[in-house]
Predict the structure.
Amino acid sequence: MTKFFASDAAIERIGAGLLDRSLPKSEWTHAAHFAAALWLLRRHGVAETAQRMPGLIRAYNEAVGGANTDTEGYHETITQASIAQAARVLAGRPPAEPLHEVTDHLMASPLGDRDWLLAHWSRDRLFSVAARRAWLAPDLAPLPQA
């Protein structure tokens, strides 16, 4: 299995870098998105993470020179779907398992493929302005449940 982060300290660095907007943009990868979600989920639970993550990502995007518009930056449907699936993976792992190992497990699953969402949403629906602005349910297949 591929190792994405060497330790929980590396995951903490990703999460803290998102919070204080110090994470270099080049390090805000697909794996880092899930690592930050898992880090927040373990600390705050699903409801609070789902509430906080949009603002954190928007602020981070702006801090690294990005914009949050109808065509770039923050995407509500992708964020909420990713949080839900990260929470599902986390719930299925032993509570004391190191977070970097949970991240490796998640990234070894279909979620590790950047296009995983396209098994659940049509491209047109997922990349619509409506899906970027607000949650749109999948139109191809439901998301796996815990």
